[in-house]
Structures are given as C-alpha cells and as structure tokens.
Amino acid sequence: MTQPTEPVRSRVLSRNDELAAALRSRWQRRGVFCLNLVSSPGAGKTTLLERTLERLSGRVKAGVLVGDLATERDAERLSRFGFPVRQIVTGGVCHLDAAMVTAHLEAVDRPDLELLFLENVGNLVCPASYDLGQDVSAVLLSTTEGDDKPLKYPTIFRRSGVMVVTKMDLLGASDFDVDRAVGHARGIQPGLRVFFTSCRTGAGIDEWTHWILQQVEAKRAATEEVAAGVPGRAGAD
Amino acid sequence: MHELSIALEIARIADESAVRAGAARVVRVQVSVGELSGVDPDALAFAWEAARAGWSRCQNARLELCWIELRVFCPQCGVETDPRPHSVACGRCGSLRTRVVAGKELDVVSLEVERDDAADGAGAQPGTVAQRRTGGRPAE
C-alpha cells in the first residue's frame, strides 16, 4: 500500500550542511572571519600561509586548522609564528568536512579569535562538495600547473570567491598563460577576486594580507553593528 | 574519491527514511546529480555497491542517478539557456551576469520502499516515500 510519510530533508550532504551552518553562525555571532584555502597538492597553500602568518604576527588574533591525509609536518611548519595551529590528520580522507573542523576547533578557538584559516587537503575535486562554514574559499593556482585547471575543475572555482595565482616568479618556465587562467576562472565565477603572488620574492603577499585584514575588519564591524542594533544594513542592497 | 562519503550519506538517508516510513526494505533510491555538484556519477554508482552493504534496509537497493545539466538565466535576455561551454555565460548573448538555475543539485529525490505485511504475512508491498525536493527548481 502506498503510504506517503513525513517528507525528509533531501540534500545528500544535509548533515554536513547543518554542522557548517552552526559553524557559520558561531563565527557570525563573534565576528570571526573564516577563510578556507583550497588547491591541488603542491600549489603552495602551506608556504603562502607561512608568508601570510609572518606578516599578520601581532596584528590579528588568528588560528589555523590544517588538513592532510597523513603527518603533522604542516602544523610544525606553521606553528613558528605564534598562532595556535592544529593538524587534522584525515587518515586518507580526501577533504575536510564540517564535522572534522568542529571536532578540532577547541585547540585553536580562543575567546578573542578574529581570523580562522582552514587549510584544506590538497585536492581540487572533493573539498568543493563540503561546506565548512567559511566566509570565503580561496583557490590557489600555481604557474607550474595547467592554465586550463578552471575548465577541468569548474566546481571548486565556482565555489571560490578568491583566486591566488602562486609561484609568479616561475612564470615563463612553463607555458602557463596568466590571462588565459584568469579568463577561464572568471568564465565560471565572474565575481572572482584575483591575487598574483610569489612566496620567494614576496610579490603580492602584502596585497593579499591587506585584503585579509580588510575582511577581518569588515566582519567585526558587521557583528558590532548587529550587536548595537543598527537597523537596515543587512540586506539593504 | 569523495563519492564513497556521498554514497554512505545516501544510504544513511535512505535507511532512516525507510525506518520512518515503517518499511522493511528500500528498493530504489533516486538521486539527482548536478553538473556543478562536484560528484562523478560513475564513481558514485561504483561506491554505492559498497555503501549499501552497511545498511540492512538498503542491501538490495538500486541507485538511480539523474544527471542535471548546468542552466543559467540571463536577466538581460530574459531567458534561460544552456551556458557557453565551460562557463556560466549566457548561451544567447555571452554575458557573464547570469544566475545558475540548475546544475548544483545533490539531492535524494525519491525512494521506493517495500513493507512487510505483518498481519497475514502476505509479503512485501511496494510504496513510495515522498521526498521534498530542494534546489534545482526550474525557473519560470
């Protein structure tokens, strides 16, 4: 006998999405800016984070969760800058999910936290499906990769708000065409903000760091406005 | 290969829905997979064989995948189109100022279940569990 029952939540990743929503409202409430770094392995997430943390030292209260399939090597590299860092060893899982972030949060979440970095597992496919409660995902693309990566992995570029082109010092060592890469990426995500960096020469790192600090300030200001009951700002446009 | 994690979630949702429906078995699970969902249908179908084994009501459940292509709406043209290749650009005018109206889905759309008739032991009867559909709503 056909007997319809209560409708169930139908998004396949609804459980992850609920945890991510809880994380997002936690950061919203406290004015913490959360940035999720994604890229293929070897694009330079950890190195970019090292140069970034170096510049942020003493300027902002930041924490870092770094995901890898195995080893604590990245956490060791990143813990030299005076910020709390926790390694999430996924044990072979190819992405971070909201449950992993939630489970490891206590190690880096101080009451005065202003900025949380999530360094995802190096992978351009799987991390795209899992919301981690971040404000923005930044996708790194190095000049030693193919400039057609945005065509091959559209989902991760579509879900990113920022693209960081890394290893600009190596431009010319391969056939990577910057304009083509940016064009492909903006074809799938027209609103993408793009930075061009080199961690060896330091090029572009100040602009990138400045943008992060602006986002931290904007998030804090928005939260303070809500707390002060300033009306009409949210959804005004 | 996150398709195994996705398949395990589908099996969990199907099994829990079957329990709520008072059903003994899940016969069929329909899942819509959008072009921009980041999920490979073949890998998901492969992972399903392993995932369903872990849930008693899903042991013989068939996974039916419905592939949903990317569609965009262009406010300038006022129409919905298949976008230009590898982009969200309007298929008619090429503008990038479009809205994605389909292609992001990763939803359990419906389940077909069987109930055991406890009263006379007459056997299983087919039934359908209504599922609320989120996302992928076609534009007017």
What would you note in describing this structure?
The complex is a heterodimer of chains A (237) and B (140). Chain A is built from eight helices and seven strands, in the order αβαβαβαββααβαβα. In chain A, helix 3 links the parallel strand 2 and strand 3. In chain A, helix 2 crosses helix 8 (205-228). Chain A has helices at residues 14-30, 45-56, 73-78, 98-104, 149-152, 154-158, 178-188, 205-228; strands at residues 33-38, 62-68, 85-89, 115-119, 136-142, 162-166, 193-196. Chain A has a seven-stranded parallel beta sheet with strand order 3-2-4-1-5-6-7, sandwiched between helices. With 140 residues, chain B is of the alpha+beta class. In chain B, 21% of the residues lie in helices and 32% in strands. Chain B contains two helices and seven strands, in the order H-E-H-E-E-E-E-E-E. In chain B, strands 2-1-6-7 form a four-stranded mixed beta sheet. In chain B, a hairpin with a 7-residue loop joins strand 6 (106-116) and strand 7. The longest helix of chain B has 18 residues, at 3-20. The radius of gyration of chain B is 19 Å and the shape is elongated. Chain B starts with a helix and ends in an 11-residue tail after the last strand. At the A-B interface, helix 1, helix 6 and helix 7 of A face helix 1, strand 6 and strand 7 of B. Chain A: InterPro entries: CobW/HypB/UreG_nucleotide-bd, Hyd_mat_HypB, P-loop_NTPase. Chain A: Keywords: GTP-binding, Hydrolase, Metal-binding, Nickel, Nucleotide-binding, Zinc.
